Amino acid sequence: MADDVLLEVSGLVRHFTLSGRLFEKPRQLTAVNDVSFSIRRGEAFGLVGESGSGKSTIGRIIARLTEPSAGSVSFDGVDWLALRGKALRDKRRDVQMVFQSPYASLDPRWRVRDILAEPLKSYTDLKGTALTARAAELMQQVGLNPDWIERFPHQFSGGQRQRIAIARALASGPKLLIADEPVSALDVSSQAQVLQLLRNICTEQGLAMLFISHDLSVVDHLCQRVGVLNHGVLEEVGPTSEIFRTPRSDYTRRLIDAVPGKKRRAAERAVHA
Amino acid sequence: MTASPLLSVRDLTVDYPSRSGPVRAVNGVSFEVTPGSVLGVVGESGSGKSSIGYALMGLTDASHAILGGAVTFEGRDLLALSRRDWRKLRGNRIAMVFQDAMATLNPVMPVGDQIGEVFRFHRPDMSRKAIRAASLELLERVGIQDAARRIDAYPHQLSGGMRQRVVIAAAIALKPALLIADEPTTALDVTVQAQILGLMQELSREQGMAMILVSHDLDVVGDVCEDVVVMKDGVVVEAGQVDDVLSRPRHAYTMQLLNARPSFGAGHMQAEAAHG
């Protein structure tokens, strides 16, 4: 249903100008080429593609970290790209981001308390003990001991740091979480835990998620719908089970063929079925 | 009967000195590699898997790491080799490919010359012309399109996948008996990863070259290797034939690693719950 739609992206285009060598004409690169898709409330939507496919640029446009060259984005009934100044600052609470590397996305000089307090101060009226209590609650939500709130990021493992980044993203009470390769920098065993956490949080809070990844297995596991990007063009979009079981585009088929361990795992499932 | 091993590692230990005393990165690891076979060494960061690779390549200095145990390669005791002997062996009989091709390659030298360096060092009698011809042949061998033009390109002018192909070309230049590849495809896109792994398997088969593939990815190891060693905290927790270990893991940690990765094609969790 149309009123289910939280985010509607249409005809999104983003050019980048590559400065050429001396005396060479600057070239134009179309990183995102006429991309349209929508995300429903509470839905996990996967955006897959290889490096340079434009998937991160789309995430950054929706997060209003960069501007598109053309196209429109409607979010929760609002002309999202028209927001400016105070209105934009207010609305940013609705769309929060989790980045790939929690080593780069957390300020090493800030205690976890301060990392979580900043969005709480910006977007809520909480103060003093109420603010501290909310920060502790966020820690618990992401499976971290609230007693660790006075620690610095370097005192945590990669998986724990990504939990802190997720807690920070949840602090403002967003409607859409944009997760750009949130587990690619983590060890395999912490990957599974962080994915599980993201899924549980989204289900419990009815939060929609734009999950940007090169990893088809993870997207298959996590997302109801998926869009496949190839050199800025959305090759196909639809329910994950359909796209990955019966791909229509050759590019999607090539991506699927390249998934390691596919044959062995399929054979094992057949045995256990 | 099993073939006599090309490489035999017995009770290998690697200690790194630190202010609070030595840190044992590898703790009594043993395995064998037969000629032409492909062994996977799997583990997470800090498991010691890369330290094994460095130790086998003689890339650990006495000041930097203390090695213990016994490593025999083609009948020679590798832990007793002098630096001079290592220089003759390395790149010649044992070669290595690392994760980051950009860091491996010299940014200010055309890629053809970097492959040529291997010949200039180990085959001083080869003429410049012969070296260039051999380098070109290698670039073609590793599937670089338009190799005659790319031979004079600098690393930054090539894609990540092509750079890794160049590194592989240099590694196999002298037809080593053993290639150690440490996360060779981790920095690459999935489609490129599949191509590079396919190339390495093909080279291994055609040249009878043994490989040790160091990786965090059990699925990659399952696709490429015959045998596998699973490492955790410097210790081998499980070892055996890939099919056995991956389909009937005996150790809880192997199981945990296997279950940590969602299985492609298993479907969506919520969809499953709905249908179940």
Word description of this protein:
- The complex is a heterodimer of chains A (273) and B (276).
- Chain A has 273 residues and is an alpha/beta fold.
- Chain A is 40% helix and 25% strand.
- Chain A is built from 11 helices and 10 strands.
- In chain A, strand 9 and strand 10 form a beta hairpin.
- In chain A, helix 5 packs across helix 6 (158-170).
- The longest helix of chain A has 18 residues, at 188-205.
- Chain A is globular.
- The two termini of chain A are 35 Å apart.
- The model of chain A has no long low-confidence stretch (mean pLDDT 93).
- Chain B has 276 residues and is α/β, with parallel strands linked by helices.
- Chain B has a 6-stranded mixed beta sheet with strand order 6-7-8-3-9-10, with helices on both faces.
- Chain B has 12 helices and 10 strands.
- Chain B has helices at residues 49-56, 83-89, 101-104, 111-122, 128-141, 147-150, 160-172, 190-207, 218-224, 242-247, 252-260, 269-275; strands at 7-16, 23-33, 38-42, 66-73, 76-77, 94-97, 178-182, 210-215, 227-232, 235-241.
- Chain A binds chain B through residues 50-51, 187-189, 191-192, 195, 199, 203, 214-218, 220-224, 240-241, 244-245, 254-266, 268-269, and chain B through 44-45, 160, 189-194, 197, 216-220, 222-223, 246-247, 256-257, 259-271.
Please sum up the structure shown:
With 273 residues, chain A is α/β, with parallel strands linked by helices.
Our estimate of the beta-strand percent of chain A is 25-35%
State the shape of chain B.
globular
Estimated radius of gyration of chain A: 20 Å
The count of DSSP E runs of length 2 or more, i.e. the number of strands of chain B, is 10
Main beta sheet of chain A: strand number and arrangement?
6 strands, mixed
Low-confidence stretches of chain B: 270-276
Give the number of helices of chain A: 11
